Amino acid sequence: MRALFVTAAITVALDQLTKWGIVFGLDLYARGEIDVLPPLLTFRMAWNYGINFGLFAGHTETARWVLIGVAVAISAGVLWWVRREGTGRRGMIAAGLLIGGAMGNVIDRLAFGAVADFLNMSCCGIENPYAFNVADIAIFAGAAGLALFAEAKKPA
């Protein structure tokens, strides 16, 4: 379980440090967009009031608290599942990524009412209109890692 908690803590810290450093430190909040390695990497400010790709973005307090509740419930469910079923170190790290990413986005919703997204990547003539953040990457990697590396307990 230690690997899960350490991974989750590092993930939350990296997510929040990058958000604060880029959104406020580089003043992306006011500037709107900063070309880093265009078109491969652009910092593009987006406040996400919904879930992935802005789905369920109601801009209401009810939606905000429902999404916070869902993120906390999923994180608690993953924690319960890996404690109950057991998994190897890679599964624990994957669970830590997922939980840490979810908690990083919960912190944003509590502090700002929305999730701060700022990473935009496009390639090969395809313009990506969406922005994401480190927490989103961790959630995706954690879910994929759990699907690949979660190991059930051996029967006694």
For the termini, the CA-CA separation is 21 Å
Please report the total strand number as a whole number: 3
Principal-axis shape: globular
Largest sheet: 3 strands, antiparallel
Q: Which segments are poorly predicted (pLDDT under 50) over 5 or more consecutive residues? A: none
Question: Strand content of the residues, in percent?
Answer: 5-15%
Instruction: Report the average pLDDT across residues.
Output: 90
Strand order within the widest sheet?
1-2-3
How many domains in all?
1
Helicity range: 55-70%
Whole-number radius of gyration?
17 Å
Order of helices and strands: HHEEHHEH
Instruction: Give the count of helical stretches.
Output: 5
Task: Please characterize this protein's 3D structure.
It is a single chain. This protein is α+β, with helices and mostly antiparallel strands and 156 residues long. It has one domain (2-149). It is built from 5 helices and 3 strands. Strands 1-2-3 form a 3-stranded antiparallel sheet. β1 and β2 (41-48) form a beta hairpin. α1 packs parallel to α4, α3 (61-85) runs antiparallel to α4 and α4 packs antiparallel against α5 (134-149). The longest helix is centred in the middle third of the chain and has 25 residues, at 61-85. The radius of gyration is 17 Å and the shape is globular. The two termini are 21 Å apart. The mean pLDDT is 90.
Provide keyphrases for this structure.
three-stranded antiparallel beta sheet; 156 residues; alpha+beta
